[in-house]
Amino acid sequence: MSEKKDSFLVNRLKSVGWAFKGALILLRTEASIKIQFAIAILVTIAGFYFEISPTEWLFQVAMIGLVMSIEGLNTAIEFIADFIHPERHDKIGRIKDVAAGAVFIAAISAVIVAVIIYYPKLF
Ligand SMILES: Nc1ncnc2c1ncn2[C@@H]1O[C@H](COP(=O)(O)OP(=O)(O)OP(=O)(O)O)[C@@H](O)[C@H]1O
């Protein structure tokens, strides 16, 4: 019984390790994620500088997580598309466009949240 529990825990820990490895691969290799990470650091500094409220922090952190995680999924979809069909194909292009569209929607939402939080503090 306890042996089963241990192996479950070890497996979960291994999964966390692989997920962490995946996040590092994204941050090291993907230009879009690097830019988003830099913006995340800048708005975090801005959050402390302007002393934004706990509710504003919640929205800001949620938006950073949303944009970067969807960007990660977009990258995974691009990898799958390139793996299963390395040549150019209209359908592969459409799959990649739709995945990029998801990032775009999240990014627009994040910009709107940023404007709502910081516009009154700046102007
Ligand atoms: N194999 C393909 N067949 C048809 N169109 C493609 C193909 N690969 C890419 N495209 C088109 O080019 C666009 C960009 O694709 P690509 O894989 O280069 O993504 P990217 O946006 O440059 O990647 P990144 O997220 O690294 O910036 C796609 O959205 C699609 O419109």
Automatic annotation (TrEMBL):
InterPro entries: DAGK, DAGK_sf, UDPK
Catalytic residue list: E71 (proton acceptor)
Gene Ontology terms, MF aspect: ATP binding; kinase activity; metal ion binding
GO cellular component, one term: plasma membrane
Cofactor note: Mn(2+), Zn(2+), Cd(2+) and Co(2+) support activity to lesser extents.
Keyword field: ATP-binding, Cell membrane, Kinase, Lipid biosynthesis, Lipid metabolism, Magnesium, Membrane, Metal-binding, Nucleotide-binding, Phospholipid biosynthesis, Phospholipid metabolism, Transferase, Transmembrane, Transmembrane helix
Matches recorded under Gene3D superfamilies: 1.10.287.3610
Keyword Transferase assigned: yes
Transmembrane region(s): 35-52, 58-77, 98-119
Pfam families noted in UniProt: DAGK_prokar
Compartment list: Cell membrane
Required cofactor(s): Mg(2+)
Chain sites annotated for binding a divalent metal cation: E30, E78
Residues where ATP binds: E30, E78, E87, R88, H89, K96, D97
Mode of membrane association: Multi-pass membrane protein
Listed GO biological process terms: phospholipid biosynthetic process
Binding site for substrate: E71
Family (UniProt): Belongs to the bacterial diacylglycerol kinase family.
Cross-referenced PANTHER family: DIACYLGLYCEROL KINASE (PTHR34299:SF1)
Protein name: Diacylglycerol kinase family protein
Organism: Gelidibacter gilvus
